[in-house]
Amino acid sequence: MGLIAAWGMAACGDDHDCDDGADAPIEAADASTDTGLWETFGGADTDDTAETEAGPEVDASAEIPELPQAVCPAIVCDLPEDGVIGPRTDVHCAIHPTDDAMGFHWSFTEPIGSGLVAKPSDFVTSIQFRPWVTGDYTVRVALETLDGEMPCDDQAVPFRVVSDEGFRVVLTWTTPTDPEVDLVGTDLDLHLRHQHATDWFDDPWDAYSRNASPNWAGNGPMDDPIFGLDDTDGEGPETFVLFTPEADRTYRVGVHYASARGFGESFATVQVFVAGALAGSCEGIRMVAHDLWDVGTIAWPSGDVVLVCDPPAITAGFPSPF
Fold this sequence. Notes:
The protein is mainly beta. It is 3% helix and 35% strand. The strands form 4 sheets. Strands 9, 10, 13, 16, 17 and 18 form a 6-stranded antiparallel β-sheet that branches. It has a 5-stranded antiparallel β-sheet with strand order 11-12-8-14-15, with no helix packed on it. A hairpin with a 2-residue loop joins strand 14 and strand 15. It is globular and about 95 Å long.
């Protein structure tokens, strides 16, 4: 924490009034006398030249007052007392108090597929975000001074997002030859098909990055799929959430390897959560460019999840309209 110390010195003799003549200019001392500058400030004894030459005595045993300690700031978020909110609620967090000489390194702990991947820049003292995936979150900030010191413990605020979420589908992947150090990487697309779809890429019944907000049921957005993130440069996550699935429907999940960009094979993982709990997953499925993996189905309202993992149902060279 930045600290500015201001030093000042003044002396008044026993027979001097510090208030009288405080605004008068200080006249130079008479060089022909032994009083020198100390008498100008009223602090010298003209009968003791030795003390005048040495200056006033200093009590070496006097205690030096301690400098004030840095105050470690805390995160303050506009959350209810129980820390529980609904999905798609704006959350604002700020650091109090702030100091220009301190860096603030923000990070999130979040449910799989939440999509809160944007890290606020250092020295930002407040952030706002909108979580829409159910589960437990933590907003955390590490505090660092400009000289690299870490004077405070990391500050953290936990909270929970709850709802009557129907189901959530999450796609992540790894590409061994992609170092993930730039904005160029592989592009895999998550698909969620309505029962009315006749094939993949059948708009509007196949939801994916280019058809991210279809109107399937006509009863508002809660019975339509909500697309979380289109990650076009590697790893994901890509997510679809359906808060209120239609009754007597079977939804189908797929993954299309849209572009390898010269990186070759990737290994895809799909997880399906029903009412916030993991209901099924397929991990590390090998795919190459233009593969279409028919992952499996989700029946509603039973919530039954059937995934095809071993062996996966992959169609090579699936034709894409793009």
